[in-house]
Amino acid sequence: MADKVEFELVSPEKLLVSQPVEMVVVPGAEGLFGVLPGHSPMIVTVKAGVIDIYADNMTDISRQIFVAGGFCEVTATRVTVLAQEATDVATIRGLDRADLERQISNLREDLETAKTETERKGILAKIDAAATKLELITGQPVAH
Question: Do both 23 and 83 map to the same domain?
């Protein structure tokens, strides 16, 4: 098992992934980071983006999962992501583009009337997640 790292992805609803993998790439708040066996321990904030799972080799992505944010704990033998929301990318690509665009527009209006910094940060996180989903559908960058 020394050539693999145990990867777990948990959302509030369920355990989505629990398997040994060659590598996992996570969208950290400071940028993407890859984890291989023997990685230095760390705990990081996860931003909205896609987790790439390389189960059997490091050249072919075996699964992609959208996460809306959360936390990641890394040890030499394990990677655990606690996600606020997690969905297979294939499911995201089936969403309605117009619905996401409307959601982003409504959230931007809500942002203008946010009364506290906490409320503002929560709305910004929702905008970031919706914009990332829209990018997955269109293949084009979306202003967050």
Answer: yes
